[in-house]
Amino acid sequence: MNLPIQTNFLFSSKRYGREKRTIIFLERGKTEILIDEIVMCQGEGNYTFVHYKNGSKRLFSKTLKQFCELFEPHDFVRVSRSFLINLRYLKAFSTTGEPCVIMENEQKIDIARRRKVAFQNIIRQFTIKSIA
């Protein structure tokens, strides 16, 4: 049985009250994700681990690039080839010496050299947006 092409890719997010939710259509059904609960996404080839704030993680058979396209409008930023982080769960960061971020779950993630300047610009914009 051939499934419609849209069932193999990430679908756009919806807004329910204050919570942002995203529905991901998979080959065997659909999965609903609360965007506000995601701390980071970790890419492993054609698979992505989604790490939640309660400490759990879930494996999806989608690339990190697909998650980037879906989550970047929701204050997520890609800091390296393997990591997409939620800026709302950013605890600390350093762009001097060895650039890295520390998430609220105490995980340290290195920032790629080529993404350092873009990360600094995104942090400035996020800070301005958060204050306003």
UniProtKB/TrEMBL annotation:
InterPro entries associated with the record: LytR-like, LytTR_DNA-bd_dom
Organism: Arcicella aquatica
Molecular function terms from GO: DNA binding
Xref: Pfam families: LytTR
Domain HTH LytTR-type: 33-125
UniProt name for this protein: LytTR family DNA-binding domain-containing protein
Keywords of the record: DNA-binding
UniProt key word DNA-binding: yes
SMART domains assigned to the protein according to its UniProt record, in alphabetical order: LytTR (SM00850)
